[in-house]
């Protein structure tokens, strides 16, 4: 009996809606209801489709990355073999120090006595030459000096900078700047 009652009520509802909205209105309401159902269920379908595609994408990406990694490893090996040749020899160190002092002079910096240290590890293709410079001037002048050295000496790296302000109300800073100049070692 309940199935018959439900069927009667649905049939009555259909006739009432058809009489109120007409056949086009009834079809429009049906399409709106179908669109609402699709909209509600779409995220679940999309995530399911996405979950199904992830393993395939992962497999393709892994294969491409493996091939790229192999090509990259060969290119890296070639680059590592040719890298030391791109650096100047240690004989250029005096010229690089002269450029650093020239940049300090152009920046109107007051330099103290510098400390130098040469480090070469056994079997390493590079020699490191550390230069520690005490500098005394305003922040902008020190910053301009650092930028000029790094732009004009391509084998120089700024390793450390320690800045102190001796007077609270002063604008002159005491800084200790350590550059590391990198050179290729002599080939045996």
Architecture blueprint of SSEs:
Elements: H1 2-86, H2 93-106, E1 110-111, E2 115-120, E3 126-137, H3 139-152, E4 156-164, E5 173-184
Antiparallel strand pairs: 1-3, 2-3, 3-5, 4-5
Helix pairs in contact: 2-3
Keywords:
single chain, 188 residues, alpha+beta, Alpha-Beta Plaits, five-stranded antiparallel beta sheet, 5 strands, elongated, membrane, transmembrane helix, Pilus assembly protein PilO
3D structure, described in words:
This is Pilus assembly protein PilO. The protein has 188 residues and is α+β, with helices and mostly antiparallel strands. It has a domain at 88-184: Alpha-Beta Plaits. The protein has three helices and five strands, in the order H-H-E-E-E-H-E-E. Strands 1, 2, 3, 4 and 5 form a five-stranded antiparallel sheet that branches. Helix 2 (93-106) packs antiparallel against helix 3 (139-152). The N and C termini lie far apart (103 Å). The model has no long low-confidence stretch (mean pLDDT 80).
Shape: elongated
CATH class of the domain at 88-184: Alpha Beta
Question: What's the name of the CATH homologous superfamily of the domain at 88-184?
Answer: Ribosomal protein S6/Translation elongation factor EF1B
Oligomer: single chain
Largest sheet report: 5 strands, antiparallel
Low-pLDDT sequence parts: none
What Rg do the Cα atoms give? 38 Å
Tell me the β content.
15-25%
| CATH topology group of the domain at 88-184 | Alpha-Beta Plaits
